[in-house]
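Shipment paperwork, digital attachment
Item: protein structure file
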Amino acid sequence: MNITIVRKEFTDISTIGYLLVDGGFFCYTLEDKDRGLKQTDSLLYIKANKIFGKTAIPYGDYKVQLSTSQRFKRVLPEVLNVKGFEGVRIHRGNTAEDTHGCPLVGFRKAFNQVFESTKAEEQLMALMQGKEITLTIIK
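Attachment content:
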């Protein structure tokens, strides 16, 4: 299963994107502010330009696995090997304050917000069960 987040709308606090599953639109995403980081940047560069809890993960390609989140106490998609970040999960939430560096999912969007996020998370999790998952983040 290939997931792509296409970042589309940029503000001073958040980034709205489109989440595609195998090339087809699935839902919207909300991330922290896009600071232009790329997975190919050096760790030193990422750490120098990242603001903890207020920066979207770098553009690039990632493996994703379903695992139990200690923070959320449920199985969620974990984005692996994100340079300069730890514990990145795709999950529900509504505002940039809910992201803490993680992509949020929702079926509706507004300025700096996504909605119907629980439904989007549940349906995305159902699609991911038993699959090998890759994530690509692009502009």
